[in-house]
Amino acid sequence: MNNRIKNIFPPVEQLLDMEPEEIGPFLLEYLNVTDEDPTSSKLNRYNFTLESNQELSDYSEGRIVDVAKVMTEAWLWLENEGMIAPAPGDTGNFSFLTRRGKKLRSHTDFKQYQSGNFLPKYKLDPVLVQKVWPLFLRGDYDLAIFQAYKEIEVRIRKIGGYGDDIIGVILARKAFHPETGPLTNKSDVDSEKEAIMHLFAGALGAFKNPNSHRDVNFSDPEEVAELILFANYLLRVVDSRNPQK
After folding, report:
1. Distance of alpha carbon 1 from its chain centroid, rounded?
2. Model-level pTM?
3. Torsion angle in degrees (nearest 10) through CA of 202, 203, 208, 213
4. Last residue of a domain, one of 105, 138, 154
5. pLDDT by residue (tens digit) across 56-96?
6. How far is it, in rounded angstroms, from Cα 80 to Cα 230?
7. Within this chain, do residues 10 and 55 fall inside the same structural domain, yes or no?
8. CA 20/CA 68 separation, integer angstroms
């Protein structure tokens, strides 16, 4: 008999060192495959983790109690994430795959879903939603950061009335100059005006300019999401300095 658990899950020793959110994608893949098999019984957490489940027993290499515990943790994690849910009208342990759970069939699908949690779409500026969010989900992190900080530059230039020949750090220092900058908040104290100027110049110099010249190779989606959210905040500041709003 083909052991789906052995085919889908990592080796037992590795599994027992994993967190529920790391096991979750494997369990969800298994549940999707099982749900589509007309010869399989309904999804049931209790039955799945029983010692009499021969498939799980064969996989567990004599550690079925330990394996059942981490599998249960992962099952409950999937419920909390809305991937599976208790079967309607059932008072036992039967579950069904939700619409979200059926969409996330592979580890690639799951990785995109988890990355989306780092960068909530509803929090983003409309331009970032259109130009940056899809890049982030595809894992094109360098370009996503470049586009986010490029949009800051574009918006500063438009609101400040500058030409295309003024770019990057120079543009930020002119637009937010404490005395002459059109985007400077005149009611701020001088030290705050200068700090805002340095903030924008530093952001464009650190995150937009390097991506313009070379591959920076960002790899951590959480770090990239934080940089995009910072760009989102800076765009909000720029918009607040628009005299037409």
Report:
1. 38
2. 0.64
3. 30
4. 105
5. 999 999 999 999 999 999 999 999 989 999 999 877 789 99
6. 29
7. yes
8. 12
